[in-house]
């Protein structure tokens, strides 16, 4: 049986946008859609005025939010099987736990909590940092959400913070991020833009030789070819464009996201590391990308 696509909802507008995106994605891949609403009683405590809020009313509200989300998904597409689940636990912890049994987890860019002023909500950030499955944070402009560009962008290269695809220079194995990007592009009948950013600090010297610049450029091109060779062969119908740019990875990826329907980046899951497992490039695209961002974990 196919693993479900799990989407977290809380009734907020960003979560409903994520729900719509997830419903389309589940229908596209022919997998079940599992709508999850998780909340803790503590979320409601200490908020004034309370107006007699109690556990029963919170449960009723949670069930209404989940049921309404399922109805919305079914109205959007009748080709998906959608179910609802209400959990009395921290939303971030719940979605991370459920990611072990998910094809992917979809979240909105904001939520209802006290941190809604953040560019990316605390739940989305936590899930992207710790989930076992790919996590898609649905954000960006309407044209990027509606698939207008027919392009999936994937960042490749062994970026120090693990924000690229995670491919090592000497390996030709298909990384999870690259495979995810090609699979999405094939399903969407879209192209893949493979982005790799490289830098040579010595270039700033006044006597920097052009030959060294060319060597760096050629090395970067060879790394990209190696990273996508098997994926290209496995998905012959997917048109591939290479974008090899000298510059900061976050700047290059954010620029590419402007004309993309989805931006895919990798994230290392370091064993024994209990903190946030996202590097600065991951953070930059999750907070500022103009399109939805898929964070694909690897070890």
Word description of this protein:
With 299 residues, the protein is α/β, with parallel strands linked by helices. A 10-stranded mixed sheet has the order 3-2-1-4-5-10-9-6-7-8, sandwiched between helices. Helix 9 links the parallel strand 9 and strand 10.
Summarize the structure.
By secondary structure, the chain is α/β, with parallel strands linked by helices. The protein folds into 2 domains: 5-138, HUPs (Rossmann fold, 3-Layer(aba) Sandwich), CATH 3.40.50; 143-298, HUPs (Rossmann fold). The chain contains 9 helices and 10 strands.
Please tag this protein with its features.
299 residues; Rossmann fold; alpha/beta; 2 domains; ten-stranded mixed beta sheet; single chain; 9 helices
SSE layout and pairing:
Blueprint: E1 5-8, H1 13-29, E2 33-38, H2 55-76, E3 82-87, H3 91-98, E4 104-108, H4 122-130, E5 135-138, H5 142-145, E6 151-155, H6 176-188, E7 191-198, H7 210-234, E8 240-246, H8 249-257, E9 262-268, H9 280-288, E10 293-298
Parallel strand pairs: 1-2, 1-4, 2-3, 4-5, 6-7, 6-9, 7-8, 9-10
Antiparallel strand pairs: 5-10
Helix pairs in contact: 1-2, 3-4, 8-9
């Amino acid at each position: 049986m196919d693993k479900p696509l799990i989407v977290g909802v809380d009734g907020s507008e960003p979560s409903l946008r994520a729900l719509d995106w997830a419903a389309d994605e589940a229908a596209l891949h022919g997998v079940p859609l599992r709508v999850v609403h998780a909340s803790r009683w503590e979320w409601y405590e200490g908020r004034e005025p309370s107006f007699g809020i109690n556990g029963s009313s919170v449960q009723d509200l949670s069930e209404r939010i989940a049921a309404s989300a399922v109805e919305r998904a079914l109205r959007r597409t009748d080709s998906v099987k959608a179910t609802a689940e209400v959990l009395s636990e921290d939303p971030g912890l719940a979605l991370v736990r459920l990611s072990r049994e998910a094809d992917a987890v979809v979240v909105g860019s904001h939520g209802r909590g006290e941190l809604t002023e953040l560019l990316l909500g605390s739940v989305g950030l936590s899930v992207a940092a710790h989930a076992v499955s790919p996590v898609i944070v649905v954000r960006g402009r309407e044209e990027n959400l509606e698939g207008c560009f027919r392009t999936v962008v994937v960042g490749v290269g062994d970026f120090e913070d693990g924000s690229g695809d995670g491919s090592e220079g000497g390996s030709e194995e298909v990384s999870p991020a690259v495979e995810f990007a090609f699979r999405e592009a094939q399903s969407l009948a879209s192209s893949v833009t493979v982005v790799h950013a490289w830098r040579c600090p010595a270039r700033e010297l006044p006597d920097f030789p052009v030959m060294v610049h060319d060597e760096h450029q050629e090395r970067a091109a060879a790394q990209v070819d190696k990273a996508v060779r098997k994926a290209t062969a496995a998905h012959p119908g997917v048109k591939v464009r290479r974008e090899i740019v000298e510059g900061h990875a976050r700047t290059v990826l954010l620029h590419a996201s402007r004309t993309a329907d989805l931006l895919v980046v990798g994230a290392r899951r370091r064993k024994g590391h209990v903190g946030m497992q996202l590097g600065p490039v991951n953070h930059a695209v999750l907070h500022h990308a103009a399109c939805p961002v898929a964070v694909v974990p690897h070890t």
